[in-house]
UniProtKB/TrEMBL annotation:
This is DUF4276 family protein. It comes from the Bacteria. Pfam families: DUF4276. It comes from Variovorax robiniae.
């Protein structure tokens, strides 16, 4: 079985991916989601989970928020080292959401408005801070302010937003990099013989 396995900091990332991926992933690839209880839990369990995964036709994407880590490249390198130590260097990609998963949503306020039933939310996209959402210090706080009339619910709304989030949106480089990793691993998996 060809599997694309996501090791995720939290459940909201899984909720978003579960509704985003059916629109972009080849049906011959099975996505698997491993949400953790935050970044410490992810980093503690990552090597063991990667080593213990038995399917040779699996590829892995580790997705973690940057949060307050000042050096995104050092964070990514540390997680990549964990993948390498687990023997999964060639089959894994590490992606960092700058600063939080919600930056992906701030990059596509039209989708957020549509998903959550907030008319004209996309008019805020012209504001300087939302043109480059990866630079927003606290994307979840900004999103909560924009969605105050409906109340932003991290997991439930991530599921709704993922269903309509544009896969062609270029405003968030970290989102673009995540989609690039998904597409690259999809190509690798489709090139493998199916052993199901």
């Amino acid at each position: 079985m060809r599997e694309l396995v996501f090791l995720l900091e939290e459940e909201s990332a899984a909720a978003m991916l579960k509704t985003l991926l059916p629109r972009m992933l080849n049906p011959g690839i099975t996505p698997r989601y491993m949400p953790f209880e935050g970044k410490q839990d992810l980093e503690k369990q990552l090597p063991k989970r990667l080593k213990g995964y038995l399917n040779p036709n699996a590829r892995f994407i580790v997705l973690r928020d940057q949060d307050r880590d000042a050096d995104c490249k050092a964070l990514k390198a540390r997680l990549a080292t964990m993948c390498a130590e687990a023997g999964r260097c060639a089959t894994s990609s590490v992606r960092i959401a700058c600063r939080e998963l919600e930056a992906f949503y701030l990059a596509d306020l039209e989708a957020v408005g549509r998903a959550l039933g907030i008319p004209n939310l996309d008019r805020h996209q012209r504001a300087a801070r939302f043109r480059s959402p990866d630079t927003v210090v606290s994307p979840s706080s900004e999103l909560a302010k924009l969605c105050k009339q409906v109340g932003y619910k991290k997991v439930g709304d991530s599921r709704k937003i993922g269903a309509v989030l544009s896969i062609d949106n270029e405003r968030s480089p970290s989102f673009r990099n995540l989609l690039g990793a998904i597409r690259r691993h999809e190509r690798e998996l489709l090139a493998l013989p199916d052993s199901s």
